[in-house]
Automatic annotation (TrEMBL), chain A:
The keyword Glycoprotein does not apply. The keyword Metal-binding does not apply. One of its GO terms (cellular component) is plasma membrane. It comes from Pseudoruegeria aquimaris. This is Beta-methylgalactoside transporter inner membrane component. Keywords: Cell membrane, Membrane, Transmembrane, Transmembrane helix. The chain crosses the membrane at residues 20-37, 70-88, 95-112, 118-141, 150-172, 203-221, 250-268, 274-296, 303-323, 329-348. It is a multi-pass membrane protein. GO terms for molecular function: transmembrane transporter activity.
UniProtKB/TrEMBL annotation, chain B:
SUPFAM superfamilies: P-loop containing nucleoside triphosphate hydrolases. This is Galactose/methyl galactoside import ATP-binding protein MglA. It is found in: Cell membrane. Its EC number is 3.6.3.17. GO terms for cellular component: plasma membrane. Residues 10-241, 257-502 form the ABC transporter domain. The gene is mglA_1. InterPro entries: AAA+_ATPase (IPR003593), ABC_carbohydrate_import_ATPase (IPR050107), ABC_transporter-like_ATP-bd (IPR003439), ABC_transporter-like_CS (IPR017871), P-loop_NTPase (IPR027417). Pfam families: ABC_tran (PF00005). Its main location: membrane. It comes from the Bacteria. One of its GO terms (molecular function) is ATP binding. It comes from Pseudoruegeria aquimaris. Keywords: ATP-binding, Cell membrane, Hydrolase, Membrane, Nucleotide-binding, Repeat, Sugar transport, Translocase, Transport.
Length: 361, 509
């Protein structure tokens, strides 16, 4: 009979070990899944985790992709982690990401073909504002009408997707695009583009912003009163109130930061790797970032590493589709399993397992 | 009361139970005769709860034996213990507020009879034992004392031979305590043995035939409570001579805190609304506020700490309206508070003591500059609290929840006192705290008053209030009686104040 016994204090060792254990379990379960699909499990795992970085044939293409994919994931996850730490559940980063992209891109497109150094920074700002504003909807509904931010922020993702479609087909459509959906390509408009900064690295301004966000969040959480208030609120809301934290203010701040960062991520994506506003330029970074945030223990450094890992599964997944003919859904399943196993083994942080004879409860 | 024979109802021999890092019970032995009222005395953490949980089948001993009526007794679960005639009334009730008394009783029975039959039996038992209770009333409408009766009657319906009561009087008014004692004496005279857990020594002297005293998991003494003084028992319990606080009457300071016409609607469905509360506290004075739990204590603390806001004029400091100020604004001008619930309200359980020092100390101790926390300074503030208030912990990096209740309470109270408040409001400052820590906390409050602070102590421990208060008032359903000088109040008068006889103050005002 297995019993769970609550630890007197959370285990430090397990806090760091559970993400690794979760990755390992995901590989095993994923391997079994791939075997059932009739693929060689070892080859599949190798294709996903090893080939993108070290296979001579693919690495030159896929290594830069690591930063391209990790950048937005980390940037969004950092924002989400602040709210998650305080028990504020913004699930709608995908929507804020889309709206940020639309707002920032719209500003740039409106100024076309003006050339100025200020255009791109202004677009970043507009992207952040767009994401922030979209996040303020669930935030204000929560603080004023006690609605559930999980539900509202999630549903607004679908509103944002409809808006994106209408923009790509209507207002923002490239007037010289011959009627095809999608905006002008920013590659043709250098003042508003987000190019690769160093050839062959995948580094663009969004990656820089993500790294800055990691440092910012680290300092905020460990040194600043706001970070302290966020942590107290998450652990013990009544104690936070007693210490003078205003829950309303904290909800607005956390939702605002996560929305702004997601919006910025959207703008960087649409002006860089995606290149243009199109119906489906978003590939679910906003949702995957939730996994990244938890996999990284809601800790900035952890999120940095988790973001790179998730980026690897994206690239490796594409490679596995290409090379082994694995279905795209299998990769998404793989990513979902990672979160599932992480949450499951997390119990070890707070409990220890005792093998004992049955005892009356 | 005792049968006088050598027959024992329950014999406990060498019970030992160890948890990781602590031996909760170490070779504990004692015996109880049928009809005996046996007290189990000890500080917090002495092992009383573990011991009774073993008897009630909630915890399995590592070694040692129990015999009930001469037969081996090793209940695997509470159901087995109940079947053998052992019943227990817990300190915290497990009742559903939305159900009636009879329905609640039925839920706790193995094989409940029909509602009509059950209601009949509840009436019968309640009349027999002098515990007035209507089986058709909703538990949500009952007072704490009446709720306890539901639990007791639930036990009595099963004809227990041993009734275990865990701190039963902590929620009762003096009058309700008298009724309970009558019931227990009647049960005892009919041959039911009672194992009575308490730290209220005068009660034990009034009620119990014999007492077993535990300290750090071991039996350190047995006595006949009627033949020894409360002080002797307390000293056996703590193993040192008790430090009784001494009070220098500091009178006639200026009025620091004034509350007038404070009415606050409750924010939670089960809370109490404060109704037109008036009082003032002068510098150097301790105002004790008594009353049965749930009559507005938490709400009053929240209104004074700034967690709930009030109209500006309802609360004032030195004549300046502060009712609209939040907790930090009040801290800035010297109004501090320590709520009742240590874990989760006064302190964040999973955070270190250093972080918990920051929680309320950041403003007055200037622990942050420009929003950035000065951790070395915060840590040294935590160390100062630990040193000044004898908090037993390996260091300020330990999580708050790793501390025992008494030690954490010393930390919480110490944290506020070291910030040199002008007004300090505390709720249940010594609840669940052992005798020596409680004495230290009370002394610290008195010292603070002697330095010229105005102190409001909200507590359910009347002995404590009588010991440290200059004036006394009671909360009843959100109303506060007019404060009266504590000296010379009789237990009956206090009971009436707590029971809500508001008209009698007029004569004394």
């Amino acid at each position: 009979m297995i019993r769970l016994e609550k630890r007197p204090s959370p285990s430090k060792a397990w806090t760091y070990a559970t993400p690794l254990l979760a990755v390992l379990l995901t590989m095993i379960a994923g391997g079994i899944l791939f075997a059932i699909l009739g693929k060689d499990p070892f080859e599949s795992i190798r294709t996903i985790f090893w080939d993108p970085l070290f296979n001579a044939q693919f690495a030159s293409y896929s290594r830069p992709q690591l930063l391209v994919k990790a950048g937005p994931l980390i940037l969004i996850a950092i924002g989400l982690s602040l709210g998650f730490r305080a028990g504020i559940w913004n699930i709608g980063a995908e929507g804020q990401y889309i709206i940020g992209a639309i707002c920032g891109a719209a500003l740039g497109l409106a100024l076309y073909p003006t050339e100025s150094r200020l255009i791109f920074p202004a677009m970043v700002l507009a992207g952040a504002l767009g994401g922030w504003a979209w996040a303020m909807i669930p935030a204000i509904l929560k603080t004023h009408f006690r609605t559930n931010e999980i539900l509202v922020s999630l549903l607004l993702v679908y509103v944002a997707e409809q808006l994106l479609a209408s923009m790509a087909l209507g207002l923002l459509r490239n007037p010289e695009g011959g009627g095809f959906p999608g905006s002008r390509n920013f590659r043709d408009y250098p003042a508003a583009a987000n190019p690769e900064l160093f050839e062959g690295t995948g580094m663009h301004w969004g990656v820089v912003a993500a790294l800055i966000a990691v440092i910012f969040a680290y300092v905020l959480l460990s040194r600043h009163m706001l970070g302290f208030q966020i942590r107290v609120t998450g652990q013990s809301p009544r104690a936070a109130r007693f210490s003078g934290v205003s829950p309303t203010r904290l909800i607005l701040v956390c939702m605002g930061i996560s929305g702004a960062l997601a919006g910025m991520a959207g703008l960087f994506e649409v002006t860089g790797p995606a290149g243009q506003i199109s119906i489906d330029f978003n590939v679910g970074y906003g949702f995957t970032a939730i996994i990244v945030a938890f996999l990284g223990r809601l800790h900035p450094i952890g999120i940095l590493l988790a973001g790179l890992l998730m980026a690897l599964t994206y690239i490796g997944g594409e490679l596995a589709q290409l090379m082994l003919g694995l279905p795209a859904a299998a990769i998404q399943l793989f990513q979902g399993m990672l979160l599932f196993f992480l949450l499951a083994v997390d119990v070890l942080t707070n409990f220890r397992i005792r093998l004992a004879k049955r005892e009356a409860a | 009361m005792t049968t006088g024979t050598d027959h024992h109802l329950i014999e406990i021999d060498g019970l030992t139970k160890a948890y990781p890092g602590v031996v909760a019970n170490d070779d504990v032995s004692f015996r109880i005769k049928p009809g005996e009222v046996h007290a189990l005395l000890g500080e917090n953490g002495a092992g009383k709860s573990t011991l009774v949980k073993m008897i009630y089948g909630l915890v399995k001993p590592d070694s040692g034996t129990m015999r009930l009526n001469g037969a081996p007794f090793a209940p695997a679960e509470p159901r087995a213990a109940r079947a053998s005639g052992v019943a227990m009334v817990f300190q915290h009730f497990s009742l559903f507020e939305a159900l009636t008394v009879a329905e609640n009783v039925a839920l706790g029975m193995e094989d409940p009879p029909g509602q009509r039959e059950l209601a009949h039996r509840i009436r019968e038992v309640s009349e027999t034992y002098g515990l007035p209770l209507d089986p058709d009333r909703l538990v949500g409408d009952l007072s704490a004392g009446e709720r306890q009766r539901v639990e007791i009657i639930r036990c009595l319906l099963q004809d227990p031979r041993l009734l275990i009561m865990d701190e039963p009087t902590s929620v009762l008014t003096p009058q309700e305590v008298d009724i309970l004692f009558e019931t227990l004496r009647k049960l005892s005279s009919e041959g039911t043995a009672i194992l009575y857990i308490s730290h209220k020594l005068e009660e034990i002297r009034a009620l119990c035939d014999s007492a077993t005293i535990l300290r750090l998991g071991k039996v350190v003494g047995e006595c006949t409570p009627r033949e020894v003084s409360a002080r002797d028992m307390a000293e056996m319990m703590v193993g040192t001579t008790l430090h009784v606080p001494t009070r220098e009457a500091g009178k006639g300071g200026e009025v620091l805190l004034k509350v007038s016409g404070l009415s606050v609607a409750s924010t939670t469905p089960f809370g109490t609304t404060l109704k037109n509360v008036h009082f003032e506290v002068r510098a150097g004075e301790v105002l004790g506020i008594g009353g049965v739990a749930g009559n507005g204590q938490d709400e009053l603390l929240a209104a004074l700490s700034g967690e709930t806001l009030a109209p500006p004029d309802a609360v004032s400091l030195r004549g300046r309206p502060i009712g609209q100020l939040g907790p930090n604004a009040r801290r800035r001008i010297g109004v501090l508070a320590a709520p009742e619930e240590r874990l989760g309200h006064a302190a964040a359980p999973d955070m270190s003591l250093t972080e918990n020092a920051l929680l309320t100390g950041v403003i007055r101790e200037e622990l942050a500059t420009g929003g950035f926390v000065n951790w070395p300074k915060t840590r040294s503030f935590a160390e100062r609290i630990i040193a000044a208030f004898d908090v037993r912990t390996p260091g300020p990096d330990n999580a708050a929840r790793a501390l025992s209740g008494g030690n954490l309470q010393k930390f919480v109270i110490g944290r506020e006192i070291l910030q040199k408040p002008d007004v300090l409001v505390v709720n249940q400052p010594t609840w669940g705290v052992d005798a020596s820590a409680a004495a230290a906390i009370r002394q610290a409050l008195l010292d603070l008053a002697a330095e010229g602070a105005a102190i409001v102590v909200i507590s359910q421990d009347l002995d404590e209030l009588m010991e440290i208060s200059d004036r006394f008032a009671a909360l009843n359903e959100g109303r506060l009686t007019a404060p009266r000088p504590a000296k010379g109040l009789t237990v009956d008068e206090i009971g009436l104040m707590m029971g809500g006889a508001h008209d009698m103050e007029a004569a004394h005002a």
